[in-house]
Amino acid sequence: MKKGVTFLTVAVAVVIMMIFATTATVAIVNVANDSTKTKFATEIAYVQEAVDNYYNKNNEYPVSESVTVDLKDVKANDLVQFANEDKVNNTVLMYELDYSLIGNIETTYGNPTNNTSNDIYAVSKKTGMVYYLKGVKAGNTTYFTLTDDLKKRINYVDKDESAIIKDSISFKPSTTEWTNKNIVTTVKVPDKYTDVVVTIINNGVSSPFTTSTYVGDYYEYKIDNVAGNYTINVAYQNTNGETLTQSYSLSNFDNEAPTLKVSDKIELNSSEGNYSYVKIDSKNDNLSGIKCIKYERENIDDSDIETYFKTNGIELNEDIIEIKDSTEYLTIYIEDNAGNFARAQIKV
Question: For residue 118, what pLDDT band results from cuts at 50, 70 and 90?
């Protein structure tokens, strides 16, 4: 009998090859989707952190003009990403991110120079969340913001500060980082307590705080009009009839500028040539501490100095600045961790 390859054998071989091809294709697609998710998650998390840091320091968002976001073409399974936003006729009001306010960070997505109206990052003033309005498609999902599954992918941890809870009374400040803006503290007192008296102690003066909102099973006090550091006392009677007091103190407000003292021009002559420089005689900040010292070999106008040195300037790592032949002015800038600054300008 003559041996040969039967039709059945060929058919089986073809089916196996098709299975391998399909499996390989699915694997490649999955790898591509995973890569896209990781890339987008990493970038939007970076942008979100920059926005959060700016808000904590300035008590406002780094945004420019408003943007009306139309959600009519967003699929139902993707629409959940906007669940916490206020919607009017299937639209949401957001604000375009202003990169210049957060250091002109480089991004792959949200690049307005692409001249695409929705290729931007925008911020919701209601939730503080950052959205990429064009969206990034990966698999069956189009990602607009930092979803829970994207957070897990990059081990992202929310920086939202947990409330300090004392006997079921919670104190939540707007920031626990150093700031020179008024700190807003939300105090929640369960309605099971009676004879509640909230007192604010500021600069040694005690004042009652009586404005509250009833929210479900607790009263909420939003303390937003006190300047500087302060202490909150909550006196109450618990369910056992005991009269108790819980307190919370803020100490991360600093509106005092750091100090900076700079020498006059110093000439150093040697066999190797002449060398001119100025010396930082002293620098100090007693509260939040010094964040940076920068300088520029030109005269930076006072009205522009803070904005300029936020993203520009030469970092000073030593206490000596060389004066080059072309140098006519030196502008030296010092900033503390709360955002206060001082400057010295020298004509050389």
Answer: confident
The enclosing domain of 316 has a CATH number of 2.60.40
Cα(186)–Cα(269) distance, integer angstroms: 62
Q: Which residues pair with 166 in a beta bridge?
A: 169
Q: Which of 162-166, 178-182, 196-200, 263-267 has the highest mean pLDDT?
A: 196-200
* Model pTM score: 0.54
Closest to 345 (Cα-Cα) out of 328, 330, 334, 326: 330
Rounded Cα gap, residues 78 and 143, in angstroms: 7
Domain encompassing residue 148: 14-153
Which tokens hold the place of 91?
């639209």
Give the Cα-Cα-Cα angle 184, 188, 191 (nearest 5 degrees).
Answer: 155
Last residue of one domain, picked from the residues 216, 249, 282: 249
Measured CA to CA, the distance from residue 194 to residue 214 in angstroms comes to 14
Binning pLDDT at 50, 70 and 90, where does residue 26 land? Answer: very low
Give residue 280's identity as a one-letter amino acid code: I
From the list 141, 94, 147, the residue with the least C-alpha distance to 121 is 94
Q: If you average pLDDT over every residue of the chain, what do you get?
A: 85
Distance from C-alpha of 52 to C-alpha of 45, rounded to nearest angstrom: 10
Q: With bands split at pLDDT 50, 70 and 90, how would you rate the model's confidence at 33?
A: confident
Tens digits of residue pLDDT in 82-112: 988 888 889 999 999 998 888 767 788 887 6
**Cβ neighbours of residue 107 under 8 Å, at least 6 residues apart?**
43, 47, 99, 121
Same domain, 94 and 203: no
At residue 144, what are phi and psi to the nearest 5 degrees? -110, -25
Measuring CA to CA, which residue among 147, 136, 174, 137 is closest to residue 45? 147
From 191, 215, 249, the end of a domain falls on: 249
Q: Does 55 share its domain with 110?
A: yes
Q: Are the C-beta atoms of 46 and 105 separated by less than 8 Å?
A: yes
Whether residue 131 sits in one domain with residue 25: yes
Residue 197's pLDDT band (cuts 50, 70, 90): very high
3-class SS at 271?
Answer: coil
